[in-house]
Design brief:
The protein is mainly alpha-helical. The chain has helices at about 1-20, 25-225, 230-244.
Amino acid sequence: MKRGIATAVLVLAASGSLLATAPTASAQGLRDLLGERAENRTNLRDLISDRLATRDDLRDLLRDRLERRNDLRDLLLDRMATRDDLRDLLRDRLERRGDLRDLILDRLATRDDLRDLLRDRLERRTDSRDFTSDRSATRDDLRDLLRDRLERRTDLRDLILDRLATRDDLRDLLRDRLERRSDLRDLLLDRVSTRDDLRDLLRDRLERRSDLRDLILDRMRDRDDQNPLLNRIRDRIGGMGGNN
């Protein structure tokens, strides 16, 4: 843009010099000069507008480049993330391969187990055949056993009827015993009451004896305290009182 402005300035200076050097030029020359100047001005305007348009284009280009840089950064980050994801995926696949190996080994072991199981089943079939033959023999035994059980049931019915009869007898016996217990309780209560009466009677007798002793002692004191016979009687009465 600076170069265009410089060229325009040079053109104007040249035209000014022509006007100064040729004051006697004809009107036709002036017209041509003015036409050239107008053309130069239009060219200048077009050049300036083109430069301005190129500036806008450069700005848009710079913006596009910045956006592309950002897009490239995002793309690089995405690729880095995808690399990590691919690494994790490869690790998972390696682990899965190990698991598949273990699974194949387990299946091989299960094949051997299945073979052993089939052998066991064949042996069990032979055993089941023998068992069915044994069951056919045991059916006859079961029939005989059922007949014996039916006979035992009839015997049990008779036994149950006998026990029911004995239960009635036991109930009557228990009732008699309960009545006897009630009679014994009444008898014991009577005896307890008679014991209390005997205790009261003994207490009364003891009180009477003590009163008699006191009376005899008072009379002997009143008579003669120097009489040896009376002293002996007192001692005896005192000894009897102590024993009682």
